[in-house]
UniProtKB/TrEMBL annotation:
InterPro entries: Znf_BED, Znf_C2H2_sf, Znf_C2H2_type
C2H2-type domain mapped to chain residues: 16-37
An annotated Gene Ontology molecular function: zinc ion binding
Keyword Metal-binding: yes
Protein name as catalogued: C2H2-type domain-containing protein
Keywords: Metal-binding, Zinc, Zinc-finger
Signal peptide, first to last residue: none
Length: 100
């Protein structure tokens, strides 16, 4: 069984094997691979959210919602209706994913 470094301690960084960029967790790395190394998207194990209106992809559900609101406001109304409380709460803490 493979022991994932992010489980053994939150100080251990996860490194991108394609460009050596480091991330605090596997989720950040996965999102980076989706965005920067789409050729290797098959190596990402977590669920990938794809925009139905353009080529945007992310591993974060909150990111696809924010992307929809910013880039495709006309369809994001539907997302708002479904998930309004979650979206508003997360908009206030959206600084962490904007760093990468
Ligand atoms: Zn990389
Ligand atoms: Zn889009």
């Amino acid at each position: 069984m493979i022991r994932h470094p992010e489980i053994s301690g939150n100080r251990i960084l996860t490194r991108c094997i394609y460009c050596n960029k480091t991330f605090k967790g596997k989720s950040g790395l996965d999102d980076h691979i989706v965005k920067r190394h789409p050729d290797f998207i098959a190596s990402v194990s977590r669920k990938i959210h794809e925009c139905t209106q353009c080529t945007y992809k992310t591993t974060y559900g909150r990111c696809i919602r924010e992307h929809l609101m910013i880039k495709h406001p006309e369809i994001s109304v539907i997302v708002f209706l479904v998930d309004v409380s979650t979206v508003i709460r997360r908009l206030k803490v959206n600084k962490d994913w904007m760093i990468t």
